[in-house]
Amino acid sequence: MGDDDYERLERLVKELGARGLLARVVQNQSGRKFVRVINPNATSLSENVTCRPTAVSDMPDWWYCWSWGERMHTADDPAGAATKVARVLAAVEE
Length: 94
Known about the structure:
Blueprint: H1 3-18, E1 22-27, E2 33-38, E3 46-53, E4 62-65, E5 71-74, H2 78-89
Antiparallel strand pairs: 1-2, 2-3, 3-4, 4-5
């Protein structure tokens, strides 16, 4: 992916931080970038979020995706995506 991928991931990092989660862009050995997200109140609760383009013309161009590859939220709304991740990573007592 190009720089657009990184920019979208950085916007998600900012939104996740605003929700109290620890997040940063990580690049694996193959060069793929993703956001590593951790709930600081329950560090076993974590997720890796990628950002991928879609080839389907009637859908938004870029999507945030869960670690297993399923589309989570359109990348033009990082706040909405961050809300979904925060909900999934919330500890029971939060």
